[in-house]
Inverse folding.
């Protein structure tokens, strides 16, 4: 076998796992996705040495060889004209039902086994987290926690520079007060946090202060800022517990400890008596996450809403009662109420602190954000209502949200409203905790002494998070009261996430370093079906051991590189989302082709190339650095042919495939790949 033939043969072997996945795909879209990955992977193998002519033939044959019939799926339908019996809640008033989901059962494949984990897209906007990540990358150091959180709040544009100085001064003074709350002048509105549920509902951007519990000495011990979804950022967190360390971190509510009688206690805390916890927006804050719930309800009332569960979820999210992650899970759980076969369990998944409403007068005392469910004796829910506070409620009527008063339900007596029972409660955030942190389709639990973690991912990203963030999410989930897992009992971790073993510093390696455990991860797409059938041609996962020889600085540099990779992936996704930005930057890219922005210019033009807004000839003429070290002005014939082959497919239909194609174009030859690699190492 000739060297070239041998090289091609070896390259083909390297992509056989992906072709094997294509063979077992359940849909045409999934099959094509694997074939695209095969092209991408093989392009990396042969970059700079052979053209993609051979690759095109191989993929073409693979498409024929591995063609499969589409498999039937479970189809859910929403039948029309379903009207519940929840009527006459006021004089001459009727309520038309929200659409209840019925199910039509068809031939079904086990979804948990065959489902291929998809790549993650752009995260919901979170100005606090964005400021925290930028601050981490900048490497700014702080002498105290108050300096750090005040700077984060200013960077996030929640407070002004003047308010930042005032906040720092007030936090320092508060350490000497004997009566903290009335003298601190720290908050616009303050809430005492007494339960884990309260902790999980602290809004994005709110200040969180921990004080001593001894009477007349309730001085602050520590302060943090809320990221939302029960996560908090700070430095010198060892003031709460030595295990939390002193570096910049985003940690979970579970890592802070547990509440006993309204007091936060942690086994490793220096404060044996526990701590009081206070939360609220800092004095003078010009931004708050969420609008007043009644104001949001009035706005939504003017918009048609065909989906009852979505209507309630949007109300709770836009008012800040739930974070965007929590609202997404709430919507999924609320929607399942109408199709569940275990109605009582479904309601328990949605509501906690449940109590039966026996008389309409009890409705007036429900705090804002509380849910009211009208259900049959078997807990089959027919209607959901949200308390706006002060005896006001929002309930979906026909295709719109409607505002009503508790007095409209005068027929509610003896625990019954017509034929229905009425149950009120708070959103069960603890039951939704795993999904809100790891996303849909997630798995988290022990199998023997192996911790299995499943979440959607992308290069350097696990469910929208950097791996260093994700490590603390794992720690937090292990500390949950109902499903506590002792890290010492974990022998190894299996990370079932796309791209978990991808790149120079994979997510699997960062997780191994942070948790001190062996981690098995998958280099490209993950599906359980592939993992359960380890035939010779399937992709082999990689195993990462904790890097015991790395010092703190080296580990931190790796984590920073991870964040840069994450940012670049998001940048590619953002280019797709805002095509006008690509168009507007073309002229500037041509005019300012300097060393410090060569990669920026090339990235935008590759984006135009992928979207077929620029010809291959024009691209190669503009970017000699793409195919040479500057000594060659005429592109090799193979480069143009390789680009034509790679870009022959249709224009990408989503952010992920768009980003993958850009990476594939960069990876076609060693010059452009090296430019990208250097850029990611220094941005």
């Amino acid at each position: 076998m000739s060297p070239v033939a041998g090289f091609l043969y070896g390259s083909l072997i390297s992509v056989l796992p992906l072709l094997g996945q294509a063979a077992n795909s359940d849909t045409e879209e999934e099959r094509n996705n694997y074939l695209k990955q095969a092209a991408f992977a093989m392009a990396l193998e042969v970059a700079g040495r052979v053209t993609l002519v051979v690759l095109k033939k191989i993929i073409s044959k693979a498409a024929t060889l591995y063609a499969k019939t589409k498999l039937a799926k479970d189809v859910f339908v929403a039948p029309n004209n379903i009207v519940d019996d929840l009527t006459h809640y006021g004089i001459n008033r009727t309520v038309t039902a929200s659409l209840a989901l019925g199910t039509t059962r068809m031939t079904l494949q086990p979804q948990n086994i065959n489902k291929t984990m998809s790549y993650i897209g752009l995260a919901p906007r979170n100005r606090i987290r964005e400021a925290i990540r930028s601050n981490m990358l900048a490497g700014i150091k702080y002498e105290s926690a108050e300096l750090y959180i005040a700077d984060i709040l200013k960077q996030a544009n929640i407070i002004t520079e003047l308010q930042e100085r005032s906040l720092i001064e007030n936090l320092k003074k508060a350490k000497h007060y004997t009566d903290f709350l009335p003298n601190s002048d720290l908050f616009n509105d303050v809430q005492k946090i007494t339960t884990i549920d309260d902790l999980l509902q602290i809004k994005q951007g709110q200040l969180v202060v921990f004080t001593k519990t001894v009477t007349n000495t309730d001085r602050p011990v520590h302060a943090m800022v809320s990221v939302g979804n029960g996560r908090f950022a700070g430095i010198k967190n060892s003031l709460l517990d030595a295990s939390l360390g002193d570096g910049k971190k985003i940690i979970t509510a579970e890592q802070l400890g547990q509440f006993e009688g309204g007091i936060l206690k942690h086994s490793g805390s220096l404060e044996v008596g526990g701590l009081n916890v206070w939360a609220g927006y800092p004095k003078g804050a010009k931004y708050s996450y969420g609008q007043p719930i009644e104001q949001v309800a009035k706005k939504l009332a003017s918009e048609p809403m065909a989906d009852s569960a979505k209507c309630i979820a949007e109300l709770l999210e836009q008012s800040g009662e739930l974070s965007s992650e929590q609202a997404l899970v709430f919507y999924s759980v609320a929607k399942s109420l109408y199709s569940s076969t275990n109605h009582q369990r479904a309601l328990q998944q949605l509501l906690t602190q449940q109590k039966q409403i026996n008389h309409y007068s009890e409705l007036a005392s429900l705090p804002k954000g509380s849910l009211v469910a009208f259900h049959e004796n078997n807990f089959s829910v027919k209607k959901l209502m949200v308390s706006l506070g002060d005896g006001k409620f929002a309930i979906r009527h026909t295709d719109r949200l409607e505002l009503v008063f508790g007095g409209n339900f005068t027929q509610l007596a003896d625990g019954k409203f017509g034929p229905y029972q009425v149950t009120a409660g708070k959103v069960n955030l603890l039951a939704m905790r795993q999904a809100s942190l790891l996303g849909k389709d997630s798995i988290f639990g022990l199998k023997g002494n192996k911790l299995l973690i499943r979440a959607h991912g992308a290069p350097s990203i696990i469910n929208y998070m950097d791996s260093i963030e994700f490590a603390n999410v794992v720690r937090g989930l292990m500390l949950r009261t109902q499903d506590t897992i002792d890290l010492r009992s974990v022998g190894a971790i299996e990370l079932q996430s796309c791209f978990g073993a991808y790149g120079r510093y994979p997510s699997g390696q960062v997780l191994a370093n942070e948790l001190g455990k062996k981690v098995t991860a998958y280099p490209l797409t993950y599906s359980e079906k592939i993992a359960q059938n380890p035939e010779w041609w399937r992709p082999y996962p990689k195993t990462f051991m904790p890097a015991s020889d790395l010092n703190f600085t080296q580990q931190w540099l790796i984590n920073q590189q991870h964040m840069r990779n994450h940012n670049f992936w998001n940048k590619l996704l953002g280019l797709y989302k805002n095509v006008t930005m690509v168009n507007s930057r073309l002229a500037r890219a041509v005019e300012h082709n300097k060393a410090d922005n060569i990669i920026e210019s090339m990235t935008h033009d590759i984006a135009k190339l992928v979207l077929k807004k620029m010809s291959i000839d024009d691209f190669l003429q503009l970017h000699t650095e793409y195919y040479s070290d500057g000594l060659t002005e005429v592109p090799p014939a193979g480069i143009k042919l390789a680009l034509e082959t790679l870009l022959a497919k249709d224009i990408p239909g989503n952010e992920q495939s768009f980003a993958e194609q850009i990476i594939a174009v960069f990876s076609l030859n060693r010059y452009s790949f090296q430019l990208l690699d250097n850029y990611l190492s220094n941005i």
